[in-house]
Amino acid sequence: MVHQLDPAHPLHPHHLECPRCGHHQIVVQNDNHFICLHCNWQRHVSEEGGPLPWPIAIILSILLGVLLL
What we know:
Elements: E1 26-29, E2 33-36, E3 42-44, H1 54-68
Antiparallel strand pairs: 1-2, 2-3
């Protein structure tokens, strides 16, 4: 007997594992909001990938300037 996985529902992609609890109970709310039904962990994808905070950008600029001298 061959066991096949059911195709993922668009709002419940069961291949996603929660980074907090490890359960596969992540649901998608909107296109960029993920919620774990088991532990209530949440992530807004639009919040990630923003610009570097200014102190880190300044430190990296100084280090790059020193290395190029």
